[in-house]
Amino acid sequence: MKNLLLILFLVLLYSKAFAEPTFVDRFSVDSEEDEPRGITFNNNGTKMFVIGWRGDDVNEYTLSTAWDVSTATFVYDTSSIDADTRDVRFNPDGTKMFVLGRGSDKVYAFSLSTAFDISTLSSINNFSVTSEEEDANGLAFNLDGTKMYVVGEDADYVNEYTLSKGFDLSTAVYAGDGERFFVRSQDPYPLDIDFNSDGTKMYVVGWDDSDINEYTLSTAFDVSTASFEGSFSVATEDANPAALTFSADGTKMFVVGAVGEDVNEYTLSCYYGVVNCSNPAVSKDVLGSIESQTATAKRIVQHVTTPVLNRMDWLRRHRKEDSLTNQNIKFNFSNEMLASLSKVMPVAAKVNKASNLSDKWSFWSEGSISVGRVGDTESSSSKDINSNGITVGIDKKINENKLYGYALRLGKDDVDVGAFTSLDTNSYSLSAYGTFPHDDTKFVEGILGISALKTDHITQGGGTNRTGERNGRQVFGSINYLTTFNKDKFNITPNARLDLGYTELSEYSETGTSALIYDKQKIETGMISAGFTLTDIIEFNTITIKPSGGLELGLDFSPSSAATVSYVSDPNTNYTSFIGQDSKNIRANLGFDLIVENGFSLIAIYERNQSDNSHSNTLYLGAGYIPSEDIEYAMSLDDDDKVFFNYKRNINGFDITFGSNYSLMSEIPEYGANLKISSKF
């Protein structure tokens, strides 16, 4: 699967990054289990599950603060499962639970009708591991459940099993003696096993030496390729460690102590850093945020050029008219810079009267709202994207087919990466554009611009609290060649376009747990597109409708961008991910212009952009109306994604203003209305 053709490399430029686990707190489970042997959590760390051979059951706890065991409260326990239960695991969505029983050396599978709620479990089947291990202690799976691992103290091997159907024990088969790994050299009593998120590191709990043993796997989740890295002693907290697990992002480790009958919590200075640090990109959110920052730079170029292309398209369709002011929207912004920009925008169509510009200049404006999603992969979290912006411009008509102008766009891109990371980017873009005809039906359009970017990077949850700020700058250009064929009022306009961009993101450092340093990143983008646009004119007595639609195929030939990060705790060890950007995409749009004889105008364009593993939906809106000197109508869009409609009229010296609003993005509908009457004495 291409997944944006991600090619991930680990580049160690210096020595290995050594980890520094720090003990934080402990939580006693003695009241529920005085011989605890296994532990796991739900995905967001708000539930903890502990198993032991005294009660032979699974105990469920809720945590009021995620991944903080000091906030745990006992909730529920199951009935006895095996005469000697040793470990517990779940599938990723919490609808299946697996228990390792040493009494019969079996793995038991259960279904849960409510995810991670053990009170709703029902038995499915079981799988015997007696042929490989008669004193089974620890259980683990790979990410998709197609591999299962059991470790025990009789043979002292980590045994590997393959499942032809993920997390389905009925399909489990022992992988063979050639696929197992011997751990007795590190500890004769291995008690538990776990992996980092990408399967390149394995951890085995040593009962005899009171430590956690770390191994590196040259092939992910293939234990036969493991090599010993080192060990971390937990003897200070408990002389007999019995189990371990990690927080979702690998920044916390939890070790069950048999002596203390408790769960000991550690913070890690780097991801899965028990002995040596893991590449930060093993965290799906970290890799997802690197991909998002790369993609945002490219997306901003698209959002800047599209309104300008819309404007030039509108001008071509209206080039025989005298008034070229359109799409005027009154925007209300709480942001001071956006608010100051909105003041220069005319509310309605009488531009020349509202400005000091020459009669040959025209104002225009356009607002856009875009939502999109990039699906998750085995190595990267999903991304939910919300973008909105305002573009204002002025242009000068030289003749019927030729013009030039300038546009300013202020945009806001919010990306939620996985469950815990957000990237909020404000962009400020200035572009110059022009259209240069070969004849009456053939045109070359050009755009050249620059942008400034500012990103707030926040990660909260999953065991981590980190923040950072990053700046960026970019230059971009677009050349569009098109020709028009028409019959009566129907037009078809084929086009070919080349888009190029260069973005440079600054170096920045995060603050918080397992904080990272991001080096300066250079992003080069290039796309060639070809497609067509269809337009028509439908006239009624007082209304003119100009429907339009288009289809465009794009080939993104952008080179990979190298993103280098290091840990704040060890800035001399660098890890580089090469983010592939080349892909194919298809863009389709449908819209219309509506023009009323009394002065009202409306433009609406819906656009769908689909690529290999992502999509976005964008809505471009504009409207304006002034039928007389004392009446104003205006449509509004603010940076909280609220649409406003304002009506203002002067009657005998009194200003009467009526306004209403509606929230576009809220899951719970939000409406508002107000009436204001004022006069100056």
Question: What do you see in this structure?
Answer:
It is a single chain. The protein is built from three helices and 45 strands. By secondary structure, it is mainly beta. It has a twelve-stranded antiparallel barrel. A five-stranded antiparallel beta sheet has the order 1-38-37-33-31, covered by helices on one side. Strands 11, 12, 13, 14 and 15 form a five-stranded antiparallel beta sheet that branches. The chain is elongated, with a radius of gyration of 31 Å.
Give short descriptive properties of this protein.
681 residues, mainly beta, twelve-stranded antiparallel β-barrel, 3 helices, 56% strand, elongated, disordered N terminus
Gist?
The chain has 681 residues and is mostly beta strands. Helix content is 7%, strand content 56%.
Task: List strands and helices in order, with pairings.
Layout: E1 7-8, E2 22-28, E3 36-41, E4 47-52, E5 58-63, E6 72-77, E7 85-90, E8 96-101, E9 106-112, E10 121-128, E11 136-141, E12 147-152, E13 157-163, E14 172-174, E15 181-182, E16 190-195, E17 201-206, E18 211-217, E19 226-233, E20 241-246, E21 252-257, E22 262-267, H1 284-317, H2 336-342, H3 351-354, E23 361-374, E24 383-397, E25 403-417, E26 421-437, E27 442-461, E28 464-483, E29 485-487, E30 490-505, E31 508-509, E32 511-512, E33 516-518, E34 521-535, E35 538-539, E36 543-556, E37 561-567, E38 570-579, E39 583-596, E40 601-611, E41 614-628, E42 631-637, E43 642-651, E44 654-663, E45 671-679
Antiparallel strand pairs: 1-38, 2-22, 3-4, 4-5, 5-6, 7-8, 8-9, 9-10, 11-12, 12-13, 13-14, 13-15, 16-17, 17-18, 18-19, 20-21, 21-22, 23-24, 23-41, 24-25, 25-26, 26-27, 27-28, 28-30, 28-32, 29-30, 30-34, 31-33, 33-37, 34-36, 35-36, 36-39, 37-38, 39-40, 40-41, 41-42, 42-43, 43-44, 44-45
